[in-house]
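Researcher: Here's the sequence for the chain we discussed earlier.
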Amino acid sequence: FGGIEDAFPPVERRTLRRSSTSGAARAGATRTTALQGLPFGARWFDTSEFMMGRVAVSILFPESDGSTDVNRYDWTPALRDSVVRSAVRGLAHWSVFAARRGIALSFVIEVHVGLATRYEPISRTVAEEENWIQDALVSLLGYRRDAITLCYDVANAARARLGAQWAALVFAVQNDSSSTGTFADGVIAHARLGGPYFVTPVKNGGAATQGATLDNYMEHEMAHTFWALDEHLPTSGWWACSLTS
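Model: Thanks. This is the structure I predict for it:
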């Protein structure tokens, strides 16, 4: 994508605490059930370590309620369906890539719609995105924690419920009529390196990204959630050419 920064530093896991109300964090028989089928050694934070096996993908559709930001965009069923189709096509490329190398890799997708937030996500910067992510996940889960803990709660619940080894969240952002195709700070689709989520607008803009479809972004950002680095220095220079992951 022309050297545009789209992989952000991984979450500092040591600062996070598991939610005592989440299925992945409960003790006893529930914990045993939630951990069945996980790769040996995989823990609550280890939601996307190796791209192989079965991956649970939760596509989430935040919807601004207009209470803080002006409600500029609304999801339609047709537009949501187009996002899901792009995810299917983009992730299928990885399954084919793996199969050619004798590696089993499949993705199982679930969808969560109408997740209310006070903010219009596309109007906010990356530095502010945890605010609307927290709103959306509180709408989904019914309890409040910090945004990253909630992301891990949703990812682990999907991983257990769908019988997967790994999990990732996709936050789809509505901006279909945007003139720029970027967030307020000029950023396009982007991921937290190593997960647990990535964010992609419906329309990704900028001269460097012309010709890249939403399918491409789904494929590309999912790789970042599994620790893949871009093959160029990011604009912020937060990693060096010597870094591997």
